[in-house]
Amino acid sequence: RYMCSWGAGTAARAQELKLAGVSLYAARTKLQTYKFSKPWMRMMAMGITEQTYDSPTRMSPEALRRSFNEDCLRYKLARK
Fold first, then answer.
1. The pTM is what?
2. Pair 2, 58: CB distance under 8 Å
């Protein structure tokens, strides 16, 4: 649950930046300044950000957060 929630927040922040016209390079540079509590988070955040920028969707950040979280939880439950 924590990982899905964290990933959803990361995707929503990336969508906010994308919709605001911030370049992928600038978004990646911004991520480098963040402090992450776990070692895997930085690379995961980079991947989520790149996927968000590659997607043509214009969903609101909040709608994207909900969608990401639901899909992530569904995926995690299906793997059990």
1. 0.87
2. no
